[in-house]
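Fig. S4 source data, part A: sequence.
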Amino acid sequence: MAFPTDLLIFSPNDIDLSFSPLRQTLRADTYILGAFNPGLARLPNGNLLIMIRVAEALRQPIVGEQIHAIRWDEERGYVLDAYPLAGVNAADPRKFQVLGYPYRVMALTSLSWLLPVELSPDGTQVVTVHYDKIIAPQRAYQEYGVEDARITKIDGTYYMTTCSVSSERHSTTLYTSTDGLNYTLHGIILDHQNKDMVFFEGKIDGKFYALTRPLGDLYFAARPGSDYFPGPSINLASSPDGLHWKPSDEPFIRARKGSASTMKIGGGTQPILTDQGWLLLYHGVELKGLVGIYRTFWALLDANDPRKILKIEDVTPILEASPSLIEPLQDQLYLSDVVFTTGIVDAGDDYIVASGEDDLACRITHIPKTAFRLD
């Protein structure tokens, strides 16, 4: 599907590494593996903000018979941890599995931090790269980085959820801001491996609502003849204050047989209220290769009761990875077939949608509102 505007707005080549927080204590040679998965919001001045996940990686993680991981330490800052090559599986360039445990244990050859970048009101030009407002690890539960921001503005406050990664837990953390640029960390709001948490852009009956997506290594079989596959699903939760969350008892969006997203699904954009109900874009993954094929699908929910799904489009994607867009960065690619949509704002006749492209760069797409219809 062709759109009036579809471009890569920011890539690793646009980052000045001299501003990296890792430079404070790390002396190893690093590079930008990816600048991707941007949270999206409109600032008070009318410009757009993309909060970019910057994955900064070791250029040579393997030295001799050892492989190294980057870690943030509360006392020493950014450090390298060495593991014997014979004791790991290093097939993935982004991470390695530490062998010898009865469960899967990973370490990262990169560490992610967040970079706020201000765009023009239509999202087609970079206005300012806010290196002075970088969000980096500051607590032990973020020792392996801060990832995948989602931003929702509610009653004048910007609520930003992120994934914080550590040996303690892989959790969802909350930041808030009154101006969209300066954020305060409030800590963990969802515990281990509950990813892709996204606040609805507005309250319902005085409560916050959010999409969540718990992960795990064990799932139970669906009943014989079920329309759904067992596995990760998008769930609903509500909260009186944005900090304490009650999961909905009813199942929500699940991997449906006959869809193009049977491997894994997860929340994408913040749900926004339209004249047809709550609109949300989410990712669905088709099994293929190392990570699968990531595409973007959409759903409309009842305005007063978001548990009611009015329409779901899980067969024909609204967005797919675009080889022509990423072609100028071909020499930096390490993945393909991945579009990971992470933000949406209203722009009159269109929605401006922000996505990560191939875990490498930030993509901005203008999608006409007529693409999302109940009939």
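Fig. S4 source data, part B ends here. The helical segments are 323-326.
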